[in-house]
Amino acid sequence: MLKQVEGSMAVAEAVAACRPEVICAYPISPQTHIVEGLSRMVKAGTLTSCEFVNVESEFAAMSVAIGASAAGARAYTATASQGLLYMVEAVYNASGLGLPIVMTVANRAIGAPINIWNDHSDAMSQRDSGWIQLYAETNQEATDLHVQAFLIAEELSLPVMVCMDGFILTHAYEQVDVPEQAQVDAFLPPFVPRQVLDPDEPVSIGSMVGPEAFTEVRYLAHARQMQALELIPQVSADFKRAFGRDSGGLVRPYRIQDAETVVIALGSILGTIKDVVDEMRDQGVSIGVLGITSFRPFPLDALREALAGAKRVVVLEKAFAVGIGGIVSSNVRTALAGQPTANYTVVAGLGGRPIGKDSLHTLFEQAGRDELEPLTFLDLDHELVERELARERANRRSGPSAENMLRDVGAVGPRLH
Amino acid sequence: MGAVPVKFYQVGSFAVGNRLLDPDLASVQSDPERANSLTSGHRACQGCGEALGARYALDAIMRATKGQMIAVNATGCLEVFSTPYPETSWRLPWLHSLFGNAPAVATGVAAAMHAKGRDDIRVVGQGGDGGTVDIGFACLSGMFERNDDVLYICYDNQAYMNTGVQRSGATPPAARTATTQTVGPEPGNVFGQGKDVPRIAMAHEIPYVATATVADLRDLEAKATRAMEFRGARYLHVLVPCPLGWGSASCDTIKVARLATQSGLFPVFEAVNGEVTSSTKIRHQVPVEEYLKLQSRYAHLFRPTRRDDVIKKLQAMADRNIERYGLLEPELAPAVPAAMSNEPVEVA
Question: What CATH code is carried by the domain that includes residue B132?
Answer without folding.
Answer: 3.40.50.970
